[in-house]
Amino acid sequence: MPTPFLSSEEYDERAHQHYNEGQYEEALEVLREGLSLYPNAVELHIGVGYARLAREEFAWARKSFEHATVLDPDHEDALAGLGETLLRFGQIQDAVQTFRRLIDLGYQDDVDIVLQAGRALLASDLNDEAREFFELAVKEAPGNAEALSNLAYVLHRVGDEDGAIAKLRRALKEDNEHVEARIYLANILYDRNELAEALRHLERTSPEDHWHDIGIWRMIELKKSLKRATEGDDELRIWEERLTEITEETDDIDEMLAEIEAKVAEESHQDVQGQLELFGVLLSTLAEQGADIRTPHRVLTPEGRQFDGSWEDIVRDMRDATRPYAGCTVQEFMTVEARRVHSDKGIDIPTHDAESFIRASANAGLLRIVR
Fold first, then answer.
1. pLDDT band for position 264 (50/70/90)?
2. Please, which residues have CB within 8 angstroms of residue 116's CB and are 6 or more apart in sequence?
3. Most CB within 10 Å of its CB: which of 34, 247, 274, 356?
4. Contact in structure between 31 and 48 (CB atoms under 8 Å)
5. pLDDT at position 292 over 50
């Protein structure tokens, strides 16, 4: 039964607490209860949208965000969420227009919402559009280290290394504790063969700051080559332990995800038909609008993991399924994996596009293309 005497704002706050802790089902339960009492509460519909988005229930997420925009066409969180779901359905132009509507409505001074739009665009490899939003965020908040770092990421992706380095250094000047910017800067410097400065930045991080093994490998390598550290040294041991920990965490996460997927499938059985029907309606809408709907490819890994979608979707999902690469761009993921394969097997894997990367990986026996 609904909890008596709670306002819609209190329901929203409770749901946010669950959401921030990654308890999306619990958040949805609170939001459903709140909506039973306050069916026109925009914030509650938006909360459902973001919880569904986090669970990758994109059709339902889109429905919630669209409902919210009917209730309040100018709500910034509803528009940002809708833009993200439109990207998931490949409606690029509509998504970009939705994000730009935020600016037309005067939300350019809301740096968080502008960065949210930019990150969503960057994740979809829309570099020019992402740069537009990141540059706007930096213009509105010149001293915001997060905005500067995000602009650096997209500059690096489009090949402007000097610009990326300048923005990362400026971000660290504004916030000396911004470890993501420091690690990213160290990796760029390493790739430019500026090894001493790369090591200097890596040494200002701790093993716990790293979630990708690439930075740790480079720290160990530079310690050995520049500082003459040897196997068994204490300064290497803590990094080697973190490397082992990341590898073990990745294995544990794979097992956990499999368990969660099975549990969600069981608990959500009653919602499957409705989700499929809604998805079918959306596909029909896309077809009517001339959207490019293609039969997805399917790839299987030796561990039995399955990835479906376009070649780009598959590589992106492979990256997202491997925690050490969280935060990496798709290009960085392909580059690091190609280097690893070359080091282990002596096989060259192309990284200029997703399809070539996947087909070469299949030829190397690293995965199997089903279709």
1. very low
2. 80, 84
3. 34
4. yes
5. no
| pLDDT for position 285 | 55
Summarised one tens digit per residue, pLDDT across range 39-97 is 999 999 999 999 999 999 999 999 999 999 999 999 999 999 999 999 999 999 999 99
Segment 218-263, tens digit of pLDDT: 999 999 999 898 877 888 999 999 988 887 755 444 454 445 454 5
Is the pLDDT at 266 greater than 60? The verdict is no
231 forms beta bridges with none
Residues 235 and 306 placed together within one structural domain of the fold:
no
Helix 111-123 × helix 76-88 angle, to 10° = 0
Q: Measured between alpha carbons, how far is 153 from 146 in angstroms, rounded to an integer?
A: 11
Q: How many C-beta atoms surround the C-beta of residue 50 within 10 A? A: 23
Residue 28, number of CB atoms within 10 A of its CB? 21
Domain span holding position 359: 296-371
Q: For residue 368, tell me if it sits in a domain.
A: yes
179-191 and 195-202 helices cross at what angle (nearest 10)?
160
Block residue for tokens 């992106």: 316
Sign of the CA dihedral 24, 29, 31, 32?
positive
Q: Fill in the amino acid letter for 59.
A: A
Q: How many CB atoms lie within 10 A of CB 362?
A: 14
End-of-domain residue from the set 207, 223, 240 = 240
Q: Are 236 and 301 in the same domain?
A: no
* Cα distances (angstroms) measured from residue 150 to each of 80, 115, 138, 349, 371: 17, 8, 9, 28, 36
Q: Has residue 271 been placed in a domain? A: no
Cβ proximity of 168 and 188 under 8 Å: yes
Distance from C-alpha of 7 to C-alpha of 24, rounded to nearest angstrom: 21
- Of 78-82, 113-117, 129-133, 212-216, which gets the smallest average pLDDT? 212-216
List the beta bridge partners of residue 308. 298
Inside any domain, residue 11: no
pTM of the model: 0.69
CA–CA gap between residue 288 and residue 91 (Å, rounded): 13
Asked whether residue 335 is assigned to any structural domain, the reply reads yes
